[in-house]
Amino acid sequence: MASLGSTAETDSALLAVVEGGGTSFRVAICRLSKDSSRPPEIVARDEFDSSHKEPKQTLEQCAAFFEKHKPLNRTGYAALGIATFGPVGINESQPESYGRILPSSPKAVWRNVDFLTPLKNACQGAKGEPLPVLVETDVNAPALAEYLSAKKENGSISSASYITVGTGVGVGLVINGKTVHGRMHPEGGHVPVQALEGDSFTGYSWGTDSSPFHGKQTVEGIASTVALTERILQRNQSSTKANSAQDRSVLANLKDDDQAFDHAANALANLCATLLLMLSMEKIVLGGGLMNRKGLIEKIRKRTVELLNGYLPLPSDMSSIITTSAHGNDAGLQGAIVLAQHAFLSQQQPGEAQKIVENTEVVEKKERKMKQEAFNVGLWHGFIVGAISIAAVYQYFIGRSRRK
Fold first, then answer.
1. Contacts of 390 (CB under 8 A, 6+ apart)
2. Whose CA is closest to 272, among 304, 299, 302?
């Protein structure tokens, strides 16, 4: 395949994007048109295994992909967006951890791995010009993408959450139009849950090392594919640990109505209830491989309502709040695209990236102003009509009294 730079359009830019997952790294190149009404177009993509014990190998494959398709104009790619599993360093003011998997990651072979440097070097141009980069979690990034999609349909929405369920469980949060960072970034997959009655599962093995609550009765410790695999292995009395992706293949043979998925649905419903109670979340989007299971999303909605016990006002159709991603399996990749787009626009036109989030708010403010003006006109109209009515009634009774 020829370099995409050889046919690059003069009115477009090429963005490099990476979705780093515990099972695979997905990479893509997008063409961003200067016409803001056109969404970025994916022109090349690939996927590389990351479930083995050689992170360097995965990163080299990703770098080779970007080198292969690098633009020929010597400036490299216009921007790089990376959405990856965590815990990960996403604070640019802390260069010692930015672009690295943090030491507390349950994925031991990835701890302290610097993924940013090899990817950035592969995307950098020969001229040495600065490459705009944004690094986010693989859940905060799609949460932002889901928020922007929801904002187009409902201009008043201010919050959204994205939950991915795979080898781990991650939670991304957007509040008031911005992704949540704080001390690090959200790690909602490790919040404790109320397990189903009689559940004797002791928690997944990944959590015994450094995970909160030692991985016992947490969302990830029950609903992740690692936890589900170990539950099945324990049930079959064959093993207590899922040591490889091959072990996790036992899930493929399970029927959708297997009891193991009831436990997963309960854990995820606990998480949804927590988000609704704690953050008054307006939109909760679930993605990841496990969500392809038929009937799982319905179980989560139903159990969420049961757990909330009538405390919150909820719609009769919970699909308006708890739903799956419109981007399907590309939710994470779409999030990385939004990151690259923001990085590019922030450098080209400072403040322009924020307009992606705020553009619908302008319309919203105009609508509020029009409603207020209409209300004021109606108020004055009502006052005048009322005054005339009172005057007419007064004249009527005065006239009657004089006639008497």
1. none
2. 304
The amino acid at residue 275 is L
Q: Determine which helix (DSSP H) or strand (DSSP E) holds 134, and give its type and residue range.
A: strand 133-137
Helix (H, G, I), strand (E, B) or coil at 323: strand
Q: Which residues are registered as beta bridge partners of 49?
A: 24
**CA separation for the pair 398, 404 (Å, rounded):** 10
Pure H helices in 75-190? 116-123, 140-153
Amino acid, res. 42: I
* Amino acid in the structure at residue 313: P
**Rounded CA gap, 225 and 301, in Å?**
20
* Whether 114 contacts 62, CB under 8 Å: no
pLDDT tens, 139-181?
999 999 999 999 998 999 999 999 999 888 999 999 999 999 9
Residue pair 245/293 in contact by the 8 Å Cβ criterion: no
The pair of three-digit structure tokens given for residue 157, joined into one six-digit string: 């929405």
Strands 12-20 and 24-33, sheet pairing: antiparallel
Q: Would you say 275 and 139 are in contact if contact means Cβ atoms under 8 Å apart?
A: no
CA distances from 209 to 106, 108, 206, 226, 349 (A): 8, 10, 7, 15, 45
3-state secondary structure of 105: coil
| Sequence-distant (≥ 6) Cβ neighbours of residue 387 within 8 angstroms | none
Q: Which residues, including other chains, have CB under 8 Å from residue 398's CB and lie 6 or more apart?
A: none
Q: In sequence order, what are the residues at sequence separation of 6 or more whose Cβ sits closer than 8 angstroms to the Cβ of residue 182?
A: none
pLDDT tens per residue across span 263-286: 999 999 999 999 999 999 999 999
3-class DSSP state of 177: coil
- How many CB atoms lie under 10 A from the CB of residue 346? 16
Residues belonging to the chain: 404
pTM metric for this prediction: 0.80
Sort 110 into a burial class: Cβ within 10 Å, 0-12 / 13-18 / 19+.
buried
The whole-angstrom separation of Cα 238 and Cα 230 is 10
Q: Report the alpha-carbon distance of residue 75 to residue 175 in Å, rounded.
A: 35
Residue 63 and residue 119 in contact, taking contact as beta carbons nearer than 8 Å: yes
Q: What DSSP line would sit under 33-92, residue for residue?
A: ES-TTSPPEEEEEEEEE-SSS-HHHHHHHHHHHHHHT--TTSSB-SEEEEEE-SSBB--T
